[in-house]
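Lab channel / #folding
Pinned by the channel admin:
"Please post every new chain as: sequence first, then the structure tokens as a reply. Keep commentary short and put observations after the output so the thread stays searchable."

First post following the new format, from NK:
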Amino acid sequence: MTSAASVGSQPTLDGSRVTPELLFRGGSSKAFPGFFDGETIGPYVSQLALTPTQLGAARISQQLDVLPAGADYMKTLSDWADVQNGASPPKAKPVGQAYLHDGRGLASYTHVDELYQAYLIAFLVLESSNMPVNPGSPYTASPPSRVRAAWHTWICTGNDS
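Reply from TO:
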């Protein structure tokens, strides 16, 4: 809550504020008794995880493998302990593909994605949608010769090359 209040005191691009109610939305509770308009309609998934994009010439549909119904793991204490000790649950053969739409799909995604995959795909969606760059970003500063792409800065060790 303190972090949300701290972030909420900072100016934003559109003049709105980040609030605990915004960050911790998702249902009614004692702390946040109301819903946002439309909050209970549709999937509780970011559009960045659903919008098709591409990486160079490779198209990315964003559909994920769907596991068969009943493919549940660690249902017993001994199975759970085995996984905690390094064993892998048995692999299930996918039965099709679908867009991410629930927590189970998100959990499955996190077991097979690359560490930076979700961030890269979110960037690709924003880039292909021609979203404007935040004017407060340090990557839009002058002189242009000193400006480096955010991804390049992230993976480099401080070289100016």
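NK: The helical segments are 2-8, 20-23, 77-84, 103-112, 117-128, 150-155.
TO: also worth noting, The radius of gyration is 21 Å.
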